[in-house]
Amino acid sequence: MLLENRRWSPPQLEEARRQALAGWPTGAGVDLQDAYAFHHSLPPERVAHRKLQAGAAAGRIFLQPRAGVALLAEHIELLSTLETRGCADFLPTTIDSYTRQNRYSEADRGIEESKAAGRSLLNGLPAVNYGVGNCRRIVEAAGVPVQVRHGTPDARLLAEIALAAGFTDFEGGGISYNIPYAKDVPLEHSLRCWQYVDRLCGLYAEQGIVINREMFGPLTGTLVPPAISHAVGIIEALLAAEQGVRSIALGYGQGGNLVQDVAALRTLSDLGRSYLDRSGYQDVQLTTVFHQWMGGFPQDESRAQGVIAWGAATAALGGVNKVIVKTPHEALGIPTAEANVVGLLCTRQVIMMLAEQSLPETPGLQAEEAIIRQEVREIFDRVLELGEGDLAAGVVRSFAAGVLDVPFAPSRCAKGSILPARDRDGAIRLLNFGDLPLSREIREFHRQKIEERGRAEKREPGFRMVIDDIYAISKGMLVGKRK
Ligand code: 8ZB
């Protein structure tokens, strides 16, 4: 069947569910009636979309860590530590890499080997292997909403099991969980798989059970210009809404320049809102998520804390509904519970201290917002044009043509011909535009900004500059300097 942005019919979903649930024996444990009953029994403070809604109304900024280990009991204990000692507002369940690639036999072996070793040998919790009943214990043990976080191009079975278990929040999208995470998965396939996930959420919504869907904004986490992640997130939101998703969170990864980041956060929520409204999805709840710096971190834990604190300040000044926090172990690997608590408390402290403060409206901030808005519009319009009005078809054609592109992405579906670099102030700009459909005016703006830096550093902007920028934060600065 042709890929199009149209709500799946009941028989289409039914047939697809039969196939997906047969993907691993635990699929047989999915019982929708039981799932609906469990969701209806959850109090509002443990339901993601309700908590997000209440938080948005009260102007609160929620904090959420990342966490997941191979063994169930340990995982539950880890989450309990993050909730009680870290005061996490939302809990995660980060899924391991085998599960993300649908390699469930290997995940099984990872569980066994972890049991034998007495420690986690997987980088997350293999939820599909554990199945509905076991996963429900995670949700039951938590006093706050629990979200599945992963990086799975085909998350059909994972979504079935997670939603049936009672998770009320599910991260990912057909673009953001493919392009940065996989090399060889066709976009058409991941988009279809995520239409399934979104339609499944739609099915739950028909029972009054609203699952929050969060789009993974940071993409490759490597110098991604805000307009690119915004365009991708907004497109994923529209595709999700068409399948019946009622609560959407759009993510954005910290760039490092305060003015650009604040402009990005502000435009993310109101561009998101206006695209949803214009497409007839006025009743879809929209919130935003800020990811503390997703690029390379300093090894030194005290320096890492500095990066975390700057992310916290940016989130507070930009205004956002939820922050995904980093830890002082970021450069080393999977953090301990302790390191995660440190990241949470450090972030909380800074956000609380900025609660009464706001940034003045400056011409610089307004200009930055205007640039992002125009770039998103130029990209979005061309995607829709290439799709001849159909957004899903437009996405596939746009990536093939480089009209949508993501810097440093491993996927063969992305052209990979754009090159970002920081300007003199550390804002992320484009050095190479690849085939992005950006106007002369916008290109001239980027060119001037990067030339200005070149003059200040007395060097020709080029690949060396990009490399310096990629490593800059891990070396203790924002704008990369020549050795
Ligand atoms: C794309 C997201 C990468 C971030 C963290 C990494 C990095 C991955 C786990 C985790 C705690 C896990 N991450 N897996 N953090 N527990 N199982 O996601 O460290 O910051």
Summarize this structure as a short list of keywords or feature phrases.
483 residues, 8-stranded parallel beta sheet, single chain, alpha/beta, globular, two-stranded antiparallel sheet, binds ligand 8ZB
**Distance, first to last CA:** 54 Å
Strand content: 5-15%
Q: Bound small molecules, which ones?
A: ligand 8ZB
- The helix content, as a percent range, equals 40-55%
Judged by helices, strands and strand pairing, the structural class is alpha/beta
DSSP, total strands: 10
Any idea what the shape is? globular
Largest sheet: 8 strands, parallel
Order of strands in the sheet with most strands: 1-8-7-6-5-4-3-2
Encode the helix/strand succession as letters.
Answer: HHHEHEHHHEHEHEHEHEHEHHHEEHH
Average pLDDT level: 98
Contiguous runs where pLDDT drops below 50 for at least 5 residues: none
Radius of gyration: 21 Å
Can you put this structure into words, describing what you see?
The chain is α/β, with parallel strands linked by helices and 483 residues long. The protein is 51% helix and 9% strand. The chain contains 17 helices and ten strands. The protein has helices at residues 10-21, 32-41, 48-58, 72-84, 97-100, 104-117, 127-141, 156-165, 187-205, 226-242, 258-278, 301-318, 337-353, 363-386, 391-401, 440-457, 463-472, and strands spanning 62-64, 91-94, 146-149, 169-171, 212-215, 247-253, 285-291, 322-324, 419-422, 428-432. The strands form two sheets. An eight-stranded parallel beta sheet has the order 1-8-7-6-5-4-3-2. A two-stranded antiparallel ribbon has the order 9-10. A hairpin with a 5-residue loop joins strand 9 (419-422) and strand 10. Helix 10 (226-242) packs parallel to helix 11. It is globular, with a radius of gyration of 21 Å. The mean pLDDT is 98. Ligand 8ZB binds next to loops.
